[in-house]
Design brief:
heterodimer; A: 315 residues; alpha/beta; Rossmann fold; Alpha-Beta Plaits; 2 domains; six-stranded mixed sheet; four-stranded antiparallel sheet; 14 strands; 32% helix; globular; disordered C terminus; B: 257 residues; mainly alpha; 0% strand; elongated
Amino acid sequence: MAAALRLEGLRKTYRNGHVALDGITMTVPEGDFFALLGPNGAGKSTTIGILASLVVKTGGKAWIFGHDIDTDFARARRHLGLVPQEFNFNVWEPVVEILINQAGYYGIPRRRAATRAEELLHRLGLWGKRNQQARNLSGGMKRRLMIARSLVHDPRLLILDEPTAGVDIELRRSMWDFLREINAQGTTIILTTHYLEEAEALCRHIAIIDRGRLIENTALDRLLERLHQETFVLYLREAAEDLPDLAGLRLRRVDARTLEVEVPREAGLNRLFAALDDAGVQVLSMRNKANRLEEVFMSLVGRELDERPATKDTA
Amino acid sequence: MNARERWIAYWTLVLRETLRFLRIWIQTVVPPMVTTALYFVIFGNLIGERVGPMAGHPYRDFIVPGLIMMSVITNSYANVVSSFFGAKYQRHVEEMLVAPVPHYVILGGYVTGGILRGLVVGLAVTAVAAVFAEVRVHAGWVLVAMAVLTAGLFSIGGFINAVFARNFDDISLIPTFVLTPLTYLGGVFYSIDLLPPFWRELSLFNPILYMVDAFRYGMLGVHDSPLWASFVIVLTAGTALWVLALSLLRRGVGLRS
Protein backbone atom coordinates (compact mmCIF):
# COMPACT_ATOMS: atom_id res chain seq x y z
CA MET A 1 0.00 0.00 0.00
CA ALA A 2 1.31 3.48 -0.87
CA ALA A 3 2.43 5.81 1.88
CA ALA A 4 0.09 8.72 2.54
CA LEU A 5 2.88 10.45 4.38
CA ARG A 6 6.58 9.81 4.59
CA LEU A 7 8.97 11.81 6.73
CA GLU A 8 12.70 11.36 6.58
CA GLY A 9 14.98 13.01 9.11
CA LEU A 10 12.65 15.98 9.59
CA ARG A 11 14.35 18.71 11.59
CA LYS A 12 13.40 22.11 12.87
CA THR A 13 15.59 24.41 14.91
CA TYR A 14 14.10 27.80 15.70
CA ARG A 15 16.15 30.99 15.59
CA ASN A 16 16.48 31.02 19.36
CA GLY A 17 18.26 27.69 19.11
CA HIS A 18 15.36 25.59 20.35
CA VAL A 19 15.32 22.22 18.61
CA ALA A 20 11.66 21.43 17.99
CA LEU A 21 12.24 18.42 15.74
CA ASP A 22 15.36 16.33 15.89
CA GLY A 23 15.21 14.02 12.90
CA ILE A 24 11.73 12.52 12.69
CA THR A 25 11.45 9.56 10.32
CA MET A 26 8.14 7.78 9.94
CA THR A 27 5.57 6.56 7.44
CA VAL A 28 1.78 6.68 7.54
CA PRO A 29 0.15 4.11 5.23
CA GLU A 30 -2.69 5.12 2.93
CA GLY A 31 -6.12 4.65 4.51
CA ASP A 32 -4.76 4.60 8.06
CA PHE A 33 -6.25 6.35 11.08
CA PHE A 34 -3.06 7.46 12.76
CA ALA A 35 -2.46 9.22 16.08
CA LEU A 36 0.48 11.51 16.65
CA LEU A 37 0.87 11.88 20.38
CA GLY A 38 3.25 13.69 22.66
CA PRO A 39 3.38 16.12 25.55
CA ASN A 40 3.01 19.86 24.92
CA GLY A 41 6.03 21.17 23.04
CA ALA A 42 6.98 17.69 21.82
CA GLY A 43 6.98 18.81 18.17
CA LYS A 44 3.58 17.62 16.92
CA SER A 45 2.34 21.01 15.77
CA THR A 46 5.74 21.84 14.28
CA THR A 47 5.55 18.66 12.20
CA ILE A 48 2.07 19.58 11.00
CA GLY A 49 3.18 23.16 10.37
CA ILE A 50 5.98 21.92 8.12
CA LEU A 51 3.60 19.74 6.11
CA ALA A 52 1.21 22.66 5.74
CA SER A 53 4.12 24.92 4.72
CA LEU A 54 3.48 27.25 7.65
CA VAL A 55 6.77 26.33 9.29
CA VAL A 56 10.06 26.25 7.39
CA LYS A 57 11.97 23.07 8.16
CA THR A 58 15.71 23.18 8.70
CA GLY A 59 16.38 19.63 7.51
CA GLY A 60 14.94 16.42 6.19
CA LYS A 61 12.36 15.57 3.58
CA ALA A 62 8.62 14.97 3.50
CA TRP A 63 6.35 13.42 0.90
CA ILE A 64 2.57 13.46 0.75
CA PHE A 65 1.35 10.61 -1.45
CA GLY A 66 4.79 10.53 -3.01
CA HIS A 67 4.89 14.27 -3.78
CA ASP A 68 7.85 16.09 -2.28
CA ILE A 69 6.58 19.07 -0.27
CA ASP A 70 9.55 21.14 -1.48
CA THR A 71 9.83 20.32 -5.17
CA ASP A 72 6.27 19.23 -5.94
CA PHE A 73 4.48 21.38 -3.40
CA ALA A 74 1.38 22.12 -5.49
CA ARG A 75 0.46 18.42 -5.83
CA ALA A 76 1.47 17.70 -2.24
CA ARG A 77 -0.77 20.49 -0.93
CA ARG A 78 -3.67 19.41 -3.11
CA HIS A 79 -3.76 16.08 -1.26
CA LEU A 80 -3.59 17.65 2.19
CA GLY A 81 -6.49 18.90 4.31
CA LEU A 82 -5.63 20.59 7.57
CA VAL A 83 -7.64 21.31 10.70
CA PRO A 84 -5.36 23.44 12.88
CA GLN A 85 -5.49 23.68 16.62
CA GLU A 86 -6.66 27.29 16.72
CA PHE A 87 -9.50 28.89 14.80
CA ASN A 88 -8.03 30.49 11.70
CA PHE A 89 -10.91 31.63 9.54
CA ASN A 90 -12.15 35.12 8.83
CA VAL A 91 -14.70 35.62 11.58
CA TRP A 92 -16.46 38.35 9.57
CA GLU A 93 -17.18 36.13 6.58
CA PRO A 94 -20.38 34.10 6.23
CA VAL A 95 -19.87 30.38 6.86
CA VAL A 96 -20.65 29.28 3.31
CA GLU A 97 -18.29 31.87 1.81
CA ILE A 98 -15.41 30.56 3.92
CA LEU A 99 -15.86 27.15 2.30
CA ILE A 100 -16.39 28.45 -1.23
CA ASN A 101 -13.33 30.71 -1.00
CA GLN A 102 -11.20 27.87 0.32
CA ALA A 103 -12.28 25.73 -2.64
CA GLY A 104 -11.40 28.63 -4.93
CA TYR A 105 -7.81 28.63 -3.63
CA TYR A 106 -7.58 25.07 -4.96
CA GLY A 107 -8.91 26.18 -8.36
CA ILE A 108 -12.37 24.64 -7.89
CA PRO A 109 -15.02 26.57 -9.89
CA ARG A 110 -17.51 28.52 -7.79
CA ARG A 111 -20.56 26.49 -8.78
CA ARG A 112 -18.90 23.17 -7.95
CA ALA A 113 -17.52 24.68 -4.73
CA ALA A 114 -21.02 25.80 -3.71
CA THR A 115 -22.37 22.27 -4.22
CA ARG A 116 -19.53 20.75 -2.22
CA ALA A 117 -19.95 23.38 0.53
CA GLU A 118 -23.66 22.60 0.77
CA GLU A 119 -22.95 18.88 1.07
CA LEU A 120 -20.36 19.37 3.81
CA LEU A 121 -22.41 21.89 5.75
CA HIS A 122 -25.35 19.47 5.75
CA ARG A 123 -23.14 16.60 6.92
CA LEU A 124 -21.64 18.65 9.72
CA GLY A 125 -24.92 20.20 10.82
CA LEU A 126 -24.04 23.75 9.82
CA TRP A 127 -26.36 24.30 6.86
CA GLY A 128 -28.76 26.35 8.98
CA LYS A 129 -25.89 28.69 9.85
CA ARG A 130 -24.54 29.05 6.30
CA ASN A 131 -25.27 32.77 5.97
CA GLN A 132 -24.17 33.74 9.46
CA GLN A 133 -20.83 35.37 10.11
CA ALA A 134 -18.45 32.79 11.52
CA ARG A 135 -17.94 34.83 14.70
CA ASN A 136 -21.54 34.07 15.69
CA LEU A 137 -20.97 30.31 15.80
CA SER A 138 -20.48 28.41 19.04
CA GLY A 139 -17.10 26.83 19.81
CA GLY A 140 -18.26 23.40 18.66
CA MET A 141 -19.68 24.82 15.43
CA LYS A 142 -16.41 26.61 14.73
CA ARG A 143 -14.57 23.29 15.09
CA ARG A 144 -16.99 21.65 12.66
CA LEU A 145 -16.58 24.58 10.26
CA MET A 146 -12.82 24.01 10.24
CA ILE A 147 -13.35 20.33 9.47
CA ALA A 148 -15.76 21.20 6.65
CA ARG A 149 -13.29 23.71 5.25
CA SER A 150 -10.44 21.20 5.33
CA LEU A 151 -12.49 18.73 3.28
CA VAL A 152 -13.83 21.10 0.65
CA HIS A 153 -11.17 20.12 -1.90
CA ASP A 154 -11.50 16.37 -1.23
CA PRO A 155 -8.05 15.76 0.27
CA ARG A 156 -6.70 12.22 0.49
CA LEU A 157 -4.86 13.01 3.72
CA LEU A 158 -6.57 14.87 6.54
CA ILE A 159 -4.53 16.13 9.48
CA LEU A 160 -6.39 17.25 12.57
CA ASP A 161 -4.48 19.02 15.31
CA GLU A 162 -6.49 18.49 18.49
CA PRO A 163 -9.86 18.78 16.76
CA THR A 164 -11.98 18.03 19.81
CA ALA A 165 -10.22 20.29 22.31
CA GLY A 166 -12.85 22.08 24.36
CA VAL A 167 -15.70 20.24 22.65
CA ASP A 168 -18.48 18.71 24.77
CA ILE A 169 -18.79 14.92 25.00
CA GLU A 170 -21.84 14.59 22.76
CA LEU A 171 -20.30 16.64 19.99
CA ARG A 172 -16.98 14.84 20.38
CA ARG A 173 -18.72 11.50 19.84
CA SER A 174 -20.51 12.79 16.74
CA MET A 175 -17.19 14.11 15.38
CA TRP A 176 -15.65 10.69 16.00
CA ASP A 177 -18.45 9.09 13.99
CA PHE A 178 -17.90 11.55 11.17
CA LEU A 179 -14.14 10.94 11.13
CA ARG A 180 -14.65 7.17 11.16
CA GLU A 181 -17.02 7.56 8.23
CA ILE A 182 -14.64 9.55 6.04
CA ASN A 183 -11.78 7.24 7.00
CA ALA A 184 -13.91 4.27 5.90
CA GLN A 185 -14.46 6.09 2.61
CA GLY A 186 -10.71 6.14 2.04
CA THR A 187 -9.38 9.35 3.57
CA THR A 188 -6.17 8.83 5.53
CA ILE A 189 -6.41 10.61 8.88
CA ILE A 190 -3.66 11.80 11.17
CA LEU A 191 -4.83 13.04 14.52
CA THR A 192 -3.09 14.74 17.39
CA THR A 193 -5.03 14.77 20.61
CA HIS A 194 -4.67 15.21 24.33
CA TYR A 195 -7.51 12.76 24.89
CA LEU A 196 -5.81 9.37 24.76
CA GLU A 197 -9.24 7.79 24.99
CA GLU A 198 -9.86 9.43 21.61
CA ALA A 199 -6.70 7.99 20.08
CA GLU A 200 -7.55 4.56 21.50
CA ALA A 201 -11.10 4.69 20.19
CA LEU A 202 -10.24 5.90 16.69
CA CYS A 203 -6.70 5.10 15.65
CA ARG A 204 -5.04 1.97 14.36
CA HIS A 205 -1.47 3.23 14.58
CA ILE A 206 0.16 5.43 17.18
CA ALA A 207 3.35 7.47 16.99
CA ILE A 208 4.70 9.21 20.06
CA ILE A 209 6.98 12.21 19.79
CA ASP A 210 8.86 13.55 22.77
CA ARG A 211 11.34 16.45 22.75
CA GLY A 212 11.43 16.42 18.96
CA ARG A 213 12.23 12.71 18.67
CA LEU A 214 10.06 9.82 17.63
CA ILE A 215 10.06 7.43 20.56
CA GLU A 216 7.37 5.03 19.36
CA ASN A 217 5.60 4.22 16.12
CA THR A 218 3.52 1.06 16.10
CA ALA A 219 0.06 -0.45 15.91
CA LEU A 220 -2.27 0.37 18.78
CA ASP A 221 -2.74 -3.33 19.59
CA ARG A 222 0.98 -3.89 19.93
CA LEU A 223 1.34 -0.81 22.09
CA LEU A 224 -1.40 -2.00 24.43
CA GLU A 225 0.24 -5.41 24.68
CA ARG A 226 3.02 -3.69 26.57
CA LEU A 227 0.63 -2.74 29.29
CA HIS A 228 1.94 -4.79 32.21
CA GLN A 229 -0.55 -3.78 34.83
CA GLU A 230 -3.75 -1.82 35.22
CA THR A 231 -5.03 0.17 38.16
CA PHE A 232 -8.67 -0.20 39.19
CA VAL A 233 -10.71 1.86 41.62
CA LEU A 234 -13.21 -0.14 43.73
CA TYR A 235 -16.22 1.47 45.43
CA LEU A 236 -17.37 -0.44 48.54
CA ARG A 237 -20.81 -0.83 50.08
CA GLU A 238 -19.44 -0.28 53.59
CA ALA A 239 -16.14 0.83 55.06
CA ALA A 240 -13.79 -2.16 55.28
CA GLU A 241 -11.86 -2.54 58.50
CA ASP A 242 -9.37 -5.16 57.41
CA LEU A 243 -8.12 -5.61 53.90
CA PRO A 244 -7.03 -9.04 52.67
CA ASP A 245 -3.36 -9.55 51.94
CA LEU A 246 -3.05 -10.55 48.30
CA ALA A 247 0.31 -11.69 47.01
CA GLY A 248 1.17 -9.94 43.76
CA LEU A 249 -1.63 -7.36 44.00
CA ARG A 250 -1.13 -3.98 45.63
CA LEU A 251 -4.24 -2.89 47.46
CA ARG A 252 -4.40 0.66 48.75
CA ARG A 253 -7.09 2.51 50.71
CA VAL A 254 -8.10 5.86 49.14
CA ASP A 255 -10.78 6.61 51.72
CA ALA A 256 -13.06 4.54 53.98
CA ARG A 257 -15.16 3.20 51.08
CA THR A 258 -12.77 3.46 48.16
CA LEU A 259 -9.85 1.20 47.29
CA GLU A 260 -7.26 1.20 44.54
CA VAL A 261 -5.67 -1.99 43.31
CA GLU A 262 -2.84 -2.55 40.86
CA VAL A 263 -3.40 -5.77 38.94
CA PRO A 264 -0.68 -7.33 36.75
CA ARG A 265 -2.03 -8.06 33.28
CA GLU A 266 -1.54 -11.82 33.60
CA ALA A 267 -3.06 -12.05 37.11
CA GLY A 268 -6.70 -11.41 36.20
CA LEU A 269 -9.40 -10.24 38.58
CA ASN A 270 -10.95 -13.48 39.83
CA ARG A 271 -8.48 -13.96 42.67
CA LEU A 272 -9.01 -10.37 43.81
CA PHE A 273 -12.77 -10.70 44.00
CA ALA A 274 -12.58 -14.12 45.69
CA ALA A 275 -10.28 -12.71 48.39
CA LEU A 276 -12.46 -9.66 48.91
CA ASP A 277 -15.51 -11.88 49.16
CA ASP A 278 -13.80 -14.08 51.75
CA ALA A 279 -12.91 -10.98 53.76
CA GLY A 280 -16.54 -9.85 53.67
CA VAL A 281 -15.77 -6.79 51.57
CA GLN A 282 -18.67 -6.00 49.21
CA VAL A 283 -17.76 -4.17 46.02
CA LEU A 284 -20.49 -1.96 44.58
CA SER A 285 -18.72 -0.89 41.40
CA MET A 286 -15.32 -0.47 39.85
CA ARG A 287 -13.61 1.49 37.09
CA ASN A 288 -10.28 1.56 35.34
CA LYS A 289 -8.32 4.37 36.97
CA ALA A 290 -6.56 5.50 33.80
CA ASN A 291 -7.12 4.97 30.13
CA ARG A 292 -5.02 2.00 28.94
CA LEU A 293 -3.18 4.01 26.32
CA GLU A 294 -2.48 6.68 28.90
CA GLU A 295 -0.69 4.14 31.09
CA VAL A 296 1.51 3.04 28.19
CA PHE A 297 2.12 6.66 27.29
CA MET A 298 3.17 7.48 30.84
CA SER A 299 5.55 4.55 30.92
CA LEU A 300 7.15 5.66 27.63
CA VAL A 301 7.28 9.41 28.08
CA GLY A 302 7.52 9.50 31.85
CA ARG A 303 5.15 12.42 32.22
CA GLU A 304 1.60 13.42 31.41
CA LEU A 305 0.45 14.82 28.10
CA ASP A 306 -0.17 18.35 29.29
CA GLU A 307 3.03 18.62 31.30
CA ARG A 308 5.28 21.20 29.72
CA PRO A 309 8.92 20.50 28.92
CA ALA A 310 11.70 22.54 30.46
CA THR A 311 12.52 24.33 27.21
CA LYS A 312 10.11 26.70 25.59
CA ASP A 313 8.55 25.75 22.27
CA THR A 314 8.23 28.74 20.00
CA ALA A 315 6.06 26.98 17.46
CA MET B 1 -2.17 24.30 -10.70
CA ASN B 2 -3.01 24.82 -14.32
CA ALA B 3 -3.79 28.24 -15.80
CA ARG B 4 -7.57 27.87 -15.30
CA GLU B 5 -7.17 26.89 -11.66
CA ARG B 6 -4.84 29.83 -11.05
CA TRP B 7 -7.40 32.11 -12.67
CA ILE B 8 -10.14 30.74 -10.38
CA ALA B 9 -7.91 31.26 -7.34
CA TYR B 10 -7.17 34.82 -8.47
CA TRP B 11 -10.85 35.69 -8.96
CA THR B 12 -11.74 34.10 -5.64
CA LEU B 13 -9.33 36.48 -3.97
CA VAL B 14 -10.49 39.49 -5.99
CA LEU B 15 -14.13 38.75 -5.25
CA ARG B 16 -13.42 38.20 -1.57
CA GLU B 17 -11.47 41.47 -1.33
CA THR B 18 -14.12 43.42 -3.23
CA LEU B 19 -16.98 42.05 -1.15
CA ARG B 20 -14.98 42.86 1.96
CA PHE B 21 -14.80 46.59 1.30
CA LEU B 22 -18.28 46.79 -0.21
CA ARG B 23 -19.76 45.02 2.83
CA ILE B 24 -18.36 47.78 5.04
CA TRP B 25 -19.09 50.60 2.58
CA ILE B 26 -20.06 52.90 5.42
CA GLN B 27 -16.42 52.71 6.61
CA THR B 28 -14.73 52.55 3.24
CA VAL B 29 -16.67 54.53 0.63
CA VAL B 30 -18.65 57.13 2.54
CA PRO B 31 -15.91 58.82 4.65
CA PRO B 32 -13.84 59.99 1.65
CA MET B 33 -17.01 61.44 0.11
CA VAL B 34 -17.77 63.39 3.28
CA THR B 35 -14.14 64.60 3.56
CA THR B 36 -14.13 65.69 -0.08
CA ALA B 37 -17.37 67.60 0.38
CA LEU B 38 -15.79 69.42 3.33
CA TYR B 39 -12.67 70.21 1.29
CA PHE B 40 -14.84 71.77 -1.40
CA VAL B 41 -16.91 73.77 1.06
CA ILE B 42 -13.83 75.10 2.88
CA PHE B 43 -11.06 75.28 0.27
CA GLY B 44 -13.09 75.31 -2.90
CA ASN B 45 -15.80 77.80 -2.02
CA LEU B 46 -14.83 79.79 1.09
CA ILE B 47 -11.06 80.14 0.61
CA GLY B 48 -10.98 79.34 -3.10
CA GLU B 49 -12.98 82.50 -3.93
CA ARG B 50 -10.15 84.59 -2.47
CA VAL B 51 -7.33 82.51 -3.99
CA GLY B 52 -8.49 83.16 -7.52
CA PRO B 53 -7.64 81.10 -10.62
CA MET B 54 -4.72 78.65 -10.61
CA ALA B 55 -3.00 77.44 -13.78
CA GLY B 56 -5.77 79.15 -15.68
CA HIS B 57 -8.62 77.35 -13.90
CA PRO B 58 -10.93 78.34 -11.06
CA TYR B 59 -9.37 77.12 -7.80
CA ARG B 60 -12.24 74.74 -7.01
CA ASP B 61 -11.78 73.08 -10.43
CA PHE B 62 -8.01 72.99 -9.96
CA ILE B 63 -8.19 70.94 -6.74
CA VAL B 64 -10.58 68.31 -8.16
CA PRO B 65 -7.88 66.01 -9.67
CA GLY B 66 -5.71 66.21 -6.55
CA LEU B 67 -8.59 65.36 -4.23
CA ILE B 68 -9.61 62.40 -6.38
CA MET B 69 -6.02 61.16 -6.53
CA MET B 70 -5.62 61.60 -2.78
CA SER B 71 -8.64 59.34 -2.22
CA VAL B 72 -7.34 56.77 -4.69
CA ILE B 73 -3.94 56.66 -2.99
CA THR B 74 -5.14 56.46 0.60
CA ASN B 75 -7.92 53.97 -0.10
CA SER B 76 -5.96 51.54 -2.24
CA TYR B 77 -3.19 51.53 0.40
CA ALA B 78 -5.63 51.21 3.30
CA ASN B 79 -7.54 48.38 1.66
CA VAL B 80 -4.59 46.07 1.26
CA VAL B 81 -2.76 46.96 4.47
CA SER B 82 -5.84 46.40 6.62
CA SER B 83 -7.07 43.33 4.78
CA PHE B 84 -3.74 41.50 4.65
CA PHE B 85 -2.77 42.44 8.18
CA GLY B 86 -6.23 41.32 9.33
CA ALA B 87 -5.63 38.00 7.56
CA LYS B 88 -2.32 37.64 9.38
CA TYR B 89 -3.80 38.70 12.71
CA GLN B 90 -6.75 36.31 12.49
CA ARG B 91 -4.46 33.76 10.86
CA HIS B 92 -6.82 33.13 7.97
CA VAL B 93 -3.91 33.95 5.69
CA GLU B 94 -3.09 30.28 6.36
CA GLU B 95 -6.09 29.34 4.19
CA MET B 96 -4.09 30.54 1.21
CA LEU B 97 -0.68 29.38 2.40
CA VAL B 98 -1.77 25.74 2.79
CA ALA B 99 -3.38 25.76 -0.65
CA PRO B 100 -1.37 25.43 -3.86
CA VAL B 101 -1.94 29.09 -4.85
CA PRO B 102 1.20 30.63 -6.40
CA HIS B 103 2.53 33.66 -4.56
CA TYR B 104 2.01 36.00 -7.48
CA VAL B 105 -1.68 35.04 -7.55
CA ILE B 106 -2.03 35.92 -3.86
CA LEU B 107 -0.28 39.25 -4.40
CA GLY B 108 -2.22 39.92 -7.61
CA GLY B 109 -5.54 39.22 -5.87
CA TYR B 110 -4.84 41.62 -3.03
CA VAL B 111 -3.49 44.32 -5.34
CA THR B 112 -6.51 44.05 -7.64
CA GLY B 113 -8.77 44.38 -4.61
CA GLY B 114 -6.87 47.51 -3.60
CA ILE B 115 -7.10 48.97 -7.10
CA LEU B 116 -10.84 48.33 -7.22
CA ARG B 117 -11.41 50.06 -3.90
CA GLY B 118 -9.23 52.98 -5.04
CA LEU B 119 -11.27 53.30 -8.24
CA VAL B 120 -14.66 52.89 -6.56
CA VAL B 121 -13.80 55.57 -3.99
CA GLY B 122 -12.24 57.72 -6.73
CA LEU B 123 -15.51 57.58 -8.68
CA ALA B 124 -17.54 58.35 -5.56
CA VAL B 125 -15.33 61.35 -4.84
CA THR B 126 -15.65 62.46 -8.48
CA ALA B 127 -19.44 62.37 -8.07
CA VAL B 128 -19.16 64.61 -4.99
CA ALA B 129 -16.75 66.91 -6.82
CA ALA B 130 -19.26 67.28 -9.64
CA VAL B 131 -21.68 68.87 -7.17
CA PHE B 132 -19.21 71.62 -6.24
CA ALA B 133 -17.01 72.07 -9.30
CA GLU B 134 -16.79 71.40 -12.99
CA VAL B 135 -15.43 67.92 -13.66
CA ARG B 136 -13.70 67.83 -17.05
CA VAL B 137 -11.95 65.19 -19.07
CA HIS B 138 -9.06 66.36 -21.21
CA ALA B 139 -7.33 63.02 -21.89
CA GLY B 140 -9.40 60.05 -20.71
CA TRP B 141 -6.69 57.43 -21.20
CA VAL B 142 -4.27 59.38 -19.00
CA LEU B 143 -6.91 59.61 -16.27
CA VAL B 144 -7.69 55.91 -16.32
CA ALA B 145 -4.08 54.74 -16.72
CA MET B 146 -2.73 57.00 -13.98
CA ALA B 147 -5.55 56.14 -11.57
CA VAL B 148 -5.08 52.39 -12.09
CA LEU B 149 -1.27 52.50 -11.94
CA THR B 150 -1.23 54.72 -8.86
CA ALA B 151 -3.80 52.56 -7.08
CA GLY B 152 -1.74 49.50 -7.99
CA LEU B 153 1.49 51.05 -6.72
CA PHE B 154 -0.02 51.99 -3.37
CA SER B 155 -1.81 48.67 -3.06
CA ILE B 156 1.55 46.92 -3.29
CA GLY B 157 2.92 49.42 -0.76
CA GLY B 158 0.08 48.52 1.58
CA PHE B 159 0.82 44.84 1.12
CA ILE B 160 4.49 45.30 2.05
CA ASN B 161 3.49 47.36 5.09
CA ALA B 162 1.14 44.55 6.19
CA VAL B 163 3.84 41.90 5.75
CA PHE B 164 6.12 43.72 8.20
CA ALA B 165 3.38 44.92 10.57
CA ARG B 166 3.24 43.19 13.94
CA ASN B 167 0.39 45.17 15.46
CA PHE B 168 -2.29 47.66 14.53
CA ASP B 169 0.00 50.62 15.24
CA ASP B 170 2.35 49.42 12.54
CA ILE B 171 -0.32 49.65 9.86
CA SER B 172 -1.12 53.27 10.64
CA LEU B 173 2.46 54.58 10.87
CA ILE B 174 3.19 54.80 7.14
CA PRO B 175 -0.18 56.32 6.16
CA THR B 176 0.06 58.90 8.95
CA PHE B 177 3.69 59.89 8.80
CA VAL B 178 4.61 59.25 5.16
CA LEU B 179 1.61 59.04 2.86
CA THR B 180 -0.45 61.93 4.20
CA PRO B 181 2.42 64.47 4.25
CA LEU B 182 3.62 63.42 0.79
CA THR B 183 0.09 63.65 -0.58
CA TYR B 184 -0.60 67.08 0.91
CA LEU B 185 2.79 68.30 -0.35
CA GLY B 186 2.23 66.62 -3.72
CA GLY B 187 0.44 69.51 -5.38
CA VAL B 188 -3.09 68.55 -4.42
CA PHE B 189 -3.98 72.11 -3.43
CA TYR B 190 -1.44 74.14 -5.39
CA SER B 191 0.82 74.26 -8.40
CA ILE B 192 4.47 73.83 -7.47
CA ASP B 193 5.22 76.92 -9.60
CA LEU B 194 3.95 78.90 -6.61
CA LEU B 195 6.67 77.52 -4.32
CA PRO B 196 10.00 79.24 -3.58
CA PRO B 197 12.85 77.67 -5.63
CA PHE B 198 14.21 75.53 -2.75
CA TRP B 199 10.84 73.98 -1.90
CA ARG B 200 10.04 73.60 -5.56
CA GLU B 201 13.23 71.62 -6.13
CA LEU B 202 12.56 69.54 -3.03
CA SER B 203 9.02 68.80 -4.20
CA LEU B 204 10.42 67.24 -7.35
CA PHE B 205 11.60 64.30 -5.20
CA ASN B 206 8.04 63.61 -4.12
CA PRO B 207 6.71 60.82 -6.39
CA ILE B 208 3.09 61.61 -5.55
CA LEU B 209 3.55 65.00 -7.16
CA TYR B 210 4.00 63.34 -10.56
CA MET B 211 0.93 61.18 -10.16
CA VAL B 212 -1.28 64.10 -9.18
CA ASP B 213 0.26 66.16 -11.96
CA ALA B 214 -0.45 63.56 -14.65
CA PHE B 215 -3.98 63.06 -13.37
CA ARG B 216 -4.53 66.81 -13.43
CA TYR B 217 -3.35 66.83 -17.03
CA GLY B 218 -5.91 64.14 -17.81
CA MET B 219 -8.67 66.32 -16.40
CA LEU B 220 -7.64 69.90 -17.03
CA GLY B 221 -4.90 69.66 -19.64
CA VAL B 222 -2.33 71.48 -17.47
CA HIS B 223 0.78 70.00 -15.90
CA ASP B 224 3.98 71.04 -14.11
CA SER B 225 6.22 68.16 -15.16
CA PRO B 226 6.50 66.04 -18.32
CA LEU B 227 3.82 63.40 -18.68
CA TRP B 228 6.33 60.66 -19.50
CA ALA B 229 8.14 61.31 -16.21
CA SER B 230 4.96 60.52 -14.29
CA PHE B 231 4.49 57.21 -16.07
CA VAL B 232 8.16 56.23 -15.77
CA ILE B 233 8.14 56.95 -12.03
CA VAL B 234 4.92 55.12 -11.25
CA LEU B 235 5.83 52.12 -13.44
CA THR B 236 9.38 51.86 -12.08
CA ALA B 237 8.28 52.18 -8.47
CA GLY B 238 5.42 49.75 -9.03
CA THR B 239 7.68 47.13 -10.61
CA ALA B 240 10.29 47.47 -7.86
CA LEU B 241 7.69 47.14 -5.10
CA TRP B 242 6.04 44.17 -6.86
CA VAL B 243 9.38 42.34 -6.99
CA LEU B 244 10.02 43.16 -3.33
CA ALA B 245 6.53 42.06 -2.21
CA LEU B 246 6.82 38.80 -4.14
CA SER B 247 10.20 38.10 -2.63
CA LEU B 248 8.82 38.71 0.88
CA LEU B 249 5.96 36.31 0.19
CA ARG B 250 8.30 33.65 -1.20
CA ARG B 251 10.53 33.90 1.85
CA GLY B 252 7.50 33.82 4.11
CA VAL B 253 8.56 36.99 5.94
CA GLY B 254 6.08 37.64 8.75
CA LEU B 255 4.06 34.61 7.66
CA ARG B 256 6.09 31.46 8.24
CA SER B 257 8.18 30.58 11.25
